[in-house]
Every structure is written in C-alpha cells, then in structure tokens.
Design goal:
Elements lengths: L5 E6 L8 E9 L9 E8 L10 H7 L11 E5 L9 E7 L5 E2 L10 E2 L2 E2 L4 E2 L5 E7 L15 E3 L2 E3 L30 E7 L10 E11 L21 E5 L5 E6 L12 E4 L2 E7 L2 E4 L14 E4 L6 E4 L11 E5 L2 E4 L18 E5 L8 E4 L4 E2 L6 E2 L14 E4 L7 E4 L12 E4 L2 E6 L7 E4 L12 E4 L7 E4 L12 E4 L2 E6 L5 E3 L13 E4 L4 H4 L6 E2 L5 E3 L7 E4 L3 E3 L6 E5 L2 E2 L7 E4 L2 E2 L6 E3 L5 E4 L9 E4 L2 E7 L13 E4 L2 E7 L13 E3 L1 H6 L8 E4 L6 E4 L9 E4 L2 E5 L2 E8 L5 E6 L13 E5 L5 E5 L12 E5 L2 E5 L19 E5 L17 H6 L6 H6 L1 H4 L1 H4 L1
Parallel strand pairs: 40-42, 41-43
Antiparallel strand pairs: 1-2, 2-3, 4-5, 5-10, 6-9, 7-8, 11-12, 13-14, 14-15, 16-18, 17-20, 18-19, 21-23, 22-24, 25-28, 26-27, 29-31, 30-33, 31-32, 34-36, 35-38, 36-37, 39-44, 43-48, 45-46, 45-49, 47-48, 50-52, 51-54, 52-53, 55-58, 56-57, 57-60, 58-59, 61-63, 62-64
C-alpha cells in the first residue's frame, strides 16, 4: 500500500463581499503521489451583499479601456456568450460614441435579479461597436452567468452546490434542506423553479428567466399560492442560457454594375451584405459577424482585353519621279490578339495617302539641252528629220541650269526589328538631316537637325501591339527569416498577362501554365551554435602511433600521430573529430594540397576521409581543417547608370569565399581563398552584401532658352510663314551659402539630348510672300531677217528682296520666259540675190518664199516686194 502525505500551505485571500472564492494549496510529501506535485482546493467565501453592487466581469473589461485595439480606443462592457461563459468577451464602443443608459431605465430581469447585478450598464446598439475576446479566461471566482452561483476556475465553469462547495452537486430538497431527500418535513408543498419567459434570442445564445413556484407534492403536482410554501426556503430567481447554437450568417450579393469601359481594362462593383437568418426572417447585420475570409469580392476587373488600335505600315516611294505624286501605306485596325477588326475609332485613323514630290530637278547643277525637231511649215507638225536639210539644222546647245545647291533634307533608314514579341514593342531607325552639296555619291554631309524642315520624321514606332500569353511573374527572393537554425526565403509569384500597350493585368492562377514556381525555399539550415562565429571549433586529435598487422583489414584512424600501412590495403578511413563545427564543411589536404572528391578519395557527411587501394604514392601528411573563415569578396562598384537626377544605380559582384586560418606561420603552400556557393556564407550568418545601390542623386543640368526672335524680322520660310530662332544653353542650377540660386553654363553634352527644346519654330509673317523676278531678254537667236526666240531668266524671290524663295511662287501666274523675234536685216547685194530657176515666178505666186530653200533659190523674185 502506498500512502500519500500532503502538506497544507497558505490559503489565498477572499473578496470582502458579494461572494468570492479562496484557494488552498497542498503539496505531496512522499512518493508516489498520483497526479501533480501541487494540488488546490477551492471554496466560496464572504457571501454577504456589498453595499454598492459590483460586477467583476465589467471591472475586468474596463481594464482594457486605455489600451489601443486595432489602433483605436474603445470603452469595454461585459458581453455574455453562453457557449464560452469563462472567456473574457467584451463589447467595445468608440470613446467618442458612447451612449450609456442607466440601469434603472433598463431594469428588466436580465439586468438586476434579487439585488444581484447581471450587467453593469446597457448600451444602445451602435455601428461603431465591436465584440471581441480580450482574454482566454476571466479571473477565478467570476460567475459563469448572471444570477447563477456557478463560478469560473482556471477558464472552466465549475458547478457550486447548495452547500457552497465548488464541484458539489447538492440541491435543496422540498423541505429546503441542502442535500436532503424530503423526508424531514411533513409539508405537502415545495418550491420548484419554473421557466416563466421565452428565450430572449432564437439563436446565437440568449437567456430565459427561471422563477420559483410553490407546487404541491405528489403525483398530482399543481402550482398553488406562494403562501403555502415556507418563505425562508424560497430559492432565488435565475437567468439560464438557452438557444446557444450560433445563428446562421451568410453573405448576400447584389447585381454587378455595368463595366466602366468597353475595352482596355475597366472595373465593376456590386453591393455585398452580411445577413443573419433567424427563422424565416433575414436581416442585415454588421460585417464583423460574418466570416471575413469568405466575403465575396465587391469589385472586379472587366473587359480586360486590349482596345483595337490602328496599325500603319511603311510609306511607299513617291509615285512620280518629278512633279507632284502620292505616297501610300497600309492602315489596318487590329485587336489585342493581332486579328483584323472594325472597332477602331475612325476619327483617329492615320492617313493612308499623302502628296509628295519627285526627285527635285531645280537644284544641284543640272543642264538643259536645246531640243531640235523637223516640222512642216504649213501645219507646224513634227515630221521625220530626213525631210529637213541637214545643212540647215541648228547646232546643238547645252546650258547649265539651277546651279544653286539643294536645301538640307531628311534621310531615314529602315526600321529595326521589333524589340518585343507582344505587349508593346518598339522599332527604331536612324533619322539624319543631310545636305547634298552637289549631285553624286559622297557629296552629302550630316548637318544639325534644325536645318531641315520641321518636324522631323519619327525615329521610332510601336510594333507587335497585341496581348501576350498568360504566364507566371516571379519577384526577387527576400532575406532569410533566420540567420541560422533553418529559415525561409520568400518571393512573390503572381499570374499575370502583359496586355497590348504594355499594361500588366493580374489573372487567375488556373490560367497560368503548370507547374507554379516556388514561393518559398529553405535557407541558413546549419545549427545556430555552429553558425555563431564567436564559438570556435575544436579538433580532438590523438597523438598515437599505429602499425598495421593485417593487410586485408580496413584501417580506421583518427587525426594526429603516425601510421604505417601495408601496400594493397583496401581502405583507410581517417576521422577528424571536431566539435562545434559543421563536419560537412571540413577540408582535407595532403602535403598542403587540397583533396577533391574522386574515385581515390571520398569524404562522407561526417567529414571522414576514405582512401581506397593503398599504394606507395599515398604516403604523405594528411590534415583536416576546421577553422575555416567564410567571407564575401566584392568587386568595385560599376559606373553610375545615371549621373544625376536621383534615378541612377550602381552594381557590383559578390562571391562567397572560404579560407583557412594558418596555425603555422611558416606554411606558405596553402591556398589563400577558395570560391564557394553563396549558401555557405549565408549559413555562416554573414549578411549578403549589397549588390545594387542608388547613385547620381545630384541635380541634373537643365536646358535654358532665350526669347524667340521677332517674327517680323525673321527669315521667311514659306508663304506668309517665317522661321523664328532662339538661343539654347545647358545650365546647372546651384544654391550659394547665402541661399541665392545661380546657374552655370556647362557643355551641351551634359543635358539630356532627348529633352532638348527646339531652336526654331514657324510663325505667321504677312510679308513672307513670293514674287516672280524676271531678267533681261537675251539677243534673238535667229540670223538676219529670220524668225528666232528670245530668252530671259525667271526667279521666285521673297517680296522686297532678291533672296530665292524656292517653289513658293508655284501658284502665281508665271511670266513668259521666251518669245519669238526676227533676225536683223540682211546686208543687201544685187550680185548675191539672183533667181536660179525658171520656176521662181510660180514659187512667188504659190507663196512658197517663206520656205528657206525656195527663198534662197528664188532670191530676186521673193525680194521684189521688199525692194518696192
């Protein structure tokens, strides 16, 4: 038989009034004792009513009034949850929205029953109130329910019998005797507790009032007048929990609204309510009463497909080599998947055809040929050259024309391949302003862009503007959660789609291909005591001498001492007994040369070295190294990607290396440093060095411009259009110690060329109009007394000047540049002017003297009228 002897120790104090609980502590003195070494006994004490009613549960809630909850302050009041009577559950109202009602105005039987306070105060329901569990358990001795004697001890509701002992099941009998069986009295009437009210709630936990009733005893028990029962044994009125099953709450949703846009990614919303079903009625309740994790979404993206866009192809060559022509290109409407569509905005459709001019022939030293044709005198029609006399054919003449150089023009290359296969790609090309000094290859030079007509042709354009396939997008791995002992690295993995125009759209994970990339991975797995650099590893070597006796047996050795081994021994195993170090990182060397794992040498997970097939070449000094130093070795920082503006960055490389601490300062043969994997340095507790950092935080130089030149005095550029100019400089703004802002002119290359403001612009000038300027007539091209042509030079110039105006005058009436003329009179000589034919009279009568051949043969006859 085993006897347990307990010592009784101090008894805890009790509340002064209102019914409290005291605890007696006991300890087991001898073994064996069943259960715990310490034991406790509880009892009810000081049941006399307090002069001022108090509520321990309300006092416990009030202790949280000045503690922030969800970053707000609440005033807390007791809240009774029948399913958790011993948890400290309180109802909180914002400090600025409290509306207490006196207990007198709410003095129903749930609040004050026979002088015992069930709830300190009642408060009006407010949208600003919340219900929260502030502690897992109330203080020992707190009553489980209002009006009940049962108390909470260590978070559990304990029954209290009529003998006021915790855990007792005794009840008063019909005679009012605690624990009695009703045999001690002759009364035919007894008090019984009867429910006199319906449950206050149909679900979610309510209370019902239990009132003492006087009933007759026996099989025909009936309620009688209360005076028939003993008033001294009348029990108290009680509140008992009822309908403790939670109410059925659920989320209800309304209809989705119309999408905000028809394409390109919009949003739509719908109302979402938390509701409670109580019988056949459904009512709206605060959202915190529903499961927030299951709340349906009230807003979502809609019409996420890209809007159709116009796509324009390359311009064709000009349709004519000279004069006015047209250039054409293809213009198509395509949707986000690259398919033809008819949903594009017609008002935004690019032009598919523009006017153009053929290769200019009004500049760069061209030549003109004199065109000579054979015509009939009577009709003026061109005939075959054989019908004209070769002797009378004028000489061919060539003259230089338009010998002024051509103006600068734009020269463009072909567009490069698209930089992206989908989403929003870009194509670029070279665009240069060139000046063709004279015709021919190699006679053009690149000049500043402002010398060419503005604006310049585009040097980039969008391409492959359609939606990309849905795919996973992964972020960078974050820092390890622990420096040792096994941590976790995390990264973001989202399913998204790059839409046309480059916008990213999140998609459901089921739309992405499988498998899904990992979001977590283990890191810093080595034990913390081994990763602590302050704990130095220790190798326990044995300075012994070993001589092998059996050449067929495997040899096991510990580091330290000497060993003599037979040639042909199958295996030698050398252990390196090290403490406070990860043995997997032990490094072995033979004669100061590091050993790598091979068919000859093997290193197991415990760091032991195995040598197989022993021969004479295996003789040497073998050593193991434990005090390895892991270090990060970094390169120099790269040049800053951006010298100013705060948006630059620098990069550098970082490698994890390991080196051994040399115990022998005369040892110079060991390698100094070995590159290892980055996880070893992380396992050693070394933080990963910064590989990217911001740079170029200073201010950037900015472009500065002067005022535009006056349009009235600017050089004419087109019809009623002049070209204004202004000065451009690159300046760096600085602030002196006195707070005065100054700017310094710096080299143009310091400013962003892409942001360079234009140096010239067109403006309206009414004086810029072209006029035709004519030269003097040339001499007549005909010989004596013959018909010929006179020429003069015609030039388009700006009004009031002699400056060439190009083709500005093309719509003005063009003055003639040539006219007919008569050659000077011929020198008369009677000897030379004779008729050489008998038919000259007929030639004259037929009017054929105007034909040069007949006029020469019949000179006298054809000139008789002139002589008169």
């Amino acid at each position: 038989m085993s006897i347990n002897i307990m010592d009784t120790y101090n008894v805890s104090s009790c509340t002064t009034c209102g019914g409290g609980i005291s605890r007696q502590q006991k300890r087991c003195r001898r073994k064996p004792c069943k259960g715990r070494t310490w034991n406790y006994k509880y009892k009810i004490c000081n049941l006399q009513p307090c002069s001022t009613p108090t509520d321990p549960r309300a006092e416990q809630c009030a202790t949280y009034d000045n503690r922030p909850y969800s970053e707000q302050l609440f005033k807390w009041y007791p809240y009774y949850d029948p399913s958790r009577p011993c948890a400290l559950i309180c109802r909180g109202e914002r400090q600025n929205n409290i509306s207490p009602l006196s207990s007198a105005s709410k003095a129903d039987e749930r609040v004050l029953v026979n002088g015992e306070l069930g709830s300190a105060e009642e408060y009006t329901e407010s949208t600003e109130s919340i219900v929260a569990q502030l502690a897992d358990k109330v203080q020992d001795g707190t009553k489980c329910y209002p009006g009940s004697h049962d108390v909470c001890i260590n978070g559990e509701c304990q029954r209290v019998g009529c003998d006021l002992k915790v855990g007792s099941n005794k009840n008063k009998d019909a005679c009012g005797i605690c624990g009695g069986d009703g045999s001690t009295c002759d009364s035919k009437y007894a008090w019984t507790l009867e429910s006199t009210s319906a449950c206050s709630e149909s679900c979610g936990g309510g209370f019902k009032i239990v009132t003492p009733m006087c009933k007759s005893t026996g099989p025909d028990s009936k309620i009688v007048d209360n005076s028939m029962c003993e008033p001294e044994s009348k029990p108290d009125k009680l509140l008992l929990p009822c309908n403790t099953l939670p109410c059925s709450t659920k989320w209800l949703t309304g209809e989705w609204s119309k999408c905000s846009v028809s394409c390109g990614g919009g949003s739509r919303s719908r109302p979402v309510f938390c509701t409670e079903e109580n019988g056949n009625a459904t009512s709206k309740i605060p959202e915190y009463k529903c499961n927030v994790n299951h709340k349906p979404k009230f807003q979502e993206i809609c019409n996420a497909f890209s809007c159709p866009m116009w796509e324009a192809g390359e311009w064709s060559e000009c349709s004519t080599s000279c004069g006015k022509g047209v250039k054409t290109r293809s213009v198509e409407c395509r949707d986000g998947k690259g398919r033809l569509s008819n949903e594009c905005d017609r008002s935004q459709q690019p032009r598919a055809e523009i006017e153009c001019k053929g290769a200019s022939s009004d500049c760069s030293s061209r030549v003109q040929d004199l065109i000579i044709t054979c015509v009939r005198d009577d009709t003026g029609k061109t005939v075959m050259p054989l019908l004209c006399s070769a002797d009378t054919k004028p000489e061919s003449r060539i003259r230089v024309c338009n010998d002024h150089p051509c103006p600068p023009r734009w020269n463009t290359s072909e567009f490069s391949p698209c930089m992206s296969p989908c989403g929003l790609g870009i194509q670029t090309r070279e665009v240069n302003c060139i000046h063709e000094v004279t015709r021919g290859t190699g006679n053009t030079v690149v000049v500043p862009n402002h010398m060419c007509p503005q604006p310049p042709p585009v040097d980039r354009q969008y391409c492959n503007v359609w939606d990309c396939p849905v795919q996973w997008s992964v972020g960078e791995w974050g820092k390890c959660s622990k420096t040792c002992g096994g941590g976790v690295k995390k990264r973001k993995v989202i399913c998204e789609q790059v839409m046309a125009q480059g916008r990213k759209q999140t998609r459901a994970e089921r739309d992405c291909p499988t498998p899904r990339p990992r979001t977590e991975k283990e890191c810093n797995s080595r034990p913390c005591d081994q990763a602590n650099p302050a704990v130095k590893p220790i190798i326990t070597s044995k300075n012994v001498t070993f001589v092998q006796e059996d050449p067929d047996r495997k040899v096991n050795l510990d580091i330290g001492g000497q060993a003599t081994i037979f040639q042909g021994t199958p295996v030698i195993k050398i252990r390196c007994p090290v403490k406070k170090f990860d043995k997997a990182h032990i490094v072995w060397r033979k004669d100061h040369e590091e050993l790598r794992k091979s068919r000859k040498y093997k290193i197991n997970k415990k760091g032991a070295l195995k040598i197989v097939d022993i021969n004479f070449s295996d003789s040497g000094v073998y050593s193991c190294w434990d005090n390895l130093i892991f270090e990060w070795v970094t390169t120099d920082w790269s040049r800053c990607s951006q010298s100013c503006g705060g948006g630059g960055f620098q990069m550098r490389g970082a490698q994890c290396t390991v080196r051994s601490v040399k115990n022998d300062t005369n040892d110079t043969k060991m390698p100094v440093r070995t590159v290892m994997g980055p996880s070893l340095c992380e396992d050693a507790g070394l933080p990963v060095p910064e590989k990217v950092r911001a740079c170029g935080t200073g201010k950037c130089p900015q472009w500065h411009t002067t005022e535009w030149s006056s349009c009235e005095t600017s050089r004419c550029f087109n019809w009623k259009t002049a070209m204004q100019r202004r000065e451009i400089s690159c300046r760096l703004a600085e602030e002196t110690s006195e707070g005065v802002d100054i700017s310094t002119v710096v080299d143009m290359s310091k400013c962003d060329e892409s942001m360079r403001p234009p140096q010239r612009q067109e403006c309206y000038n009414d004086a810029c109009k072209g006029v035709w300027r004519v030269g003097e007539w040339s001499e007549c091209s005909a010989s004596c007394e013959e018909d010929g042509i006179k020429y003069r030079i015609l030039q388009c110039v700006w009004y009031g000047t002699k400056k060439p105006a190009g083709n500005v005058c093309r719509n003005l009436p063009r003055p003639p540049v040539m006219k007919t003329c008569r050659g000077p009179p011929c020198a008369k000589s009677s000897d030379d002017c004779k008729d050489h034919s008998k038919l000259c009279g007929r030639v004259k009568l037929m009017g054929m003297c105007r034909v040069p051949l007949y006029a020469k043969q019949c000179c006298n006859s054809c000139h008789q009228d002139k002589k008169v």
